[in-house]
Amino acid sequence: MSKVSFNEWREFITKQESPHILQTAEWGELKRGFGWDVERIISGESGIQILFRKLPFGFTIAYAPKPVSGFEQLLPEIDSVCRKKRAVFLKIEPDSWDSASPALHPQRGASVFILHSSFKISPHNIQPPRTVIVSLEGSDDEILGRMKQKCRYNVRLAEKKEVTVRAWDDLDGFHRLMEVTGGRDGFGVHSREYYQRAYDLFHPTGMAEILVAEFDGQPLAALMVFALGTRAYYLYGASTDEQRNRMPTYLLQWRAMQWAKERGGTEYDLWGLPDEEEATLEAQFETRHDGLWGVYRFKRGFGGQVKRAAQALDKVYMPPFYRMYLWRMGNRE
């Protein structure tokens, strides 16, 4: 086993076929600046980046979001690191969809990994499990053609109404927009320093860009888009209540998709929906307004495929404290 540096991990990730943005060295450094420790392990052709959140009395929670294929080969090394860091448990969110998940379909004989590694299916995910994946394959006209008619109309309407989109480096302005949107829609917003750190880490590498939609020089909406390999991700976005009839958010998303496609992206992850089956989403999106339902009404228009990530897996090292964690999480729901 070899614990490796930031640069060594970056080199390892570049050799992987389709790594997730949450396993990059830059993501680890971003989280390190906001309360997490980071350990990166490479052994042979396998590797994993694990985040450790400090708890009282020297304990930690270990978390590995979307590890690269083959991490299962490192279980003895993973156990060793987690025990040294006094982890109560390790949560892994596999980088796969539920239809291929060993966690969700034990009746298919796919639970071997869990049974032989002492993992259990977790009742809690950290990342939003359900999303819309938009294909970026084909021409621009073909991508637009796969969108819902109303969404495609709104993209073109924004252009006709003189909305423009450009790269933006005004982190103060971006954070102000995020605060407006968080207050309006009731979701959590990171600090200004968090977005600045993300931008400083990812933008110089070409893996991220902030785009702003404007009318007559007035920022109406903005997002931070990330890309790695063939995958792109819409992680942070915001809009004002001004000039909404100009449909700036639709053109903004379309420009982000074009940005991703120019960098070799073949899919665009819209990141986060109500955790319901697609039939339920379609049946209720016109009447539901709570939580992420408004988000689904917007995102469904881009013609993507609704998918659910494989359920998180937990490996428990300290059962009594893990039971306390489950009790506390249950009281939050």
In short:
The chain has twelve helices and 14 strands. It is α+β, with helices and mostly antiparallel strands.
Could you please describe the fold and organization of this structure?
This protein is an alpha+beta fold. About 4% of the residues have low confidence. The longest helix is centred in the middle third of the chain and has 15 residues. The chain is globular, with a radius of gyration of 21 Å. It is built from twelve helices and 14 strands. It folds into two domains: 150 residues, Aminopeptidase (3-Layer(aba) Sandwich), CATH 3.40.630; 179 residues, Gcn5-related N-acetyltransferase (GNAT) (Aminopeptidase). A hairpin with a 2-residue loop joins strand 10 and strand 11.
Structural descriptors:
single chain; 333 residues; alpha+beta; Aminopeptidase; 2 domains; 7-stranded mixed β-sheet; 12 helices; globular
Architecture blueprint of SSEs:
Layout: E1 2-3, H1 6-14, H2 25-32, E2 36-43, E3 46-54, E4 60-65, H3 75-84, E5 87-93, H4 112-117, E6 119-121, E7 130-135, H5 140-145, H6 149-160, E8 164-167, H7 171-185, H8 192-202, E9 208-215, E10 218-228, E11 231-239, H9 248-262, E12 267-269, H10 278-284, H11 293-299, E13 305-308, E14 313-316, H12 319-332
Parallel strand pairs: 4-5, 11-12
Antiparallel strand pairs: 1-2, 2-3, 3-4, 5-14, 6-14, 7-12, 7-13, 8-9, 9-10, 10-11
The helix/strand series, from N terminus to C terminus, equals: EHHEEEHEHEEHHEHHEEEHEHHEEH
- Write down how many β-strands occur, each being a DSSP E stretch of 2 or more residues: 14
Share of residues in strands: 25-35%
- Report low-confidence residues grouped into runs of 5 or more: 100-112
Distance between termini?
A: 39 Å
User: Which class of the largest domain in CATH terms?
Assistant: Alpha Beta
Give the oligomeric state of the chains in this entry, treating copies of one chain as homo and distinct chains as hetero: single chain
Helix/strand/pairing category: alpha+beta
For the biggest sheet, the summary is: 7 strands, mixed
How does CATH name the architecture of the largest domain?
Answer: 3-Layer(aba) Sandwich
How confident overall, as mean pLDDT?
92
Assign the CATH superfamily of the largest domain.
Answer: Gcn5-related N-acetyltransferase (GNAT)
What is the overall shape?
globular
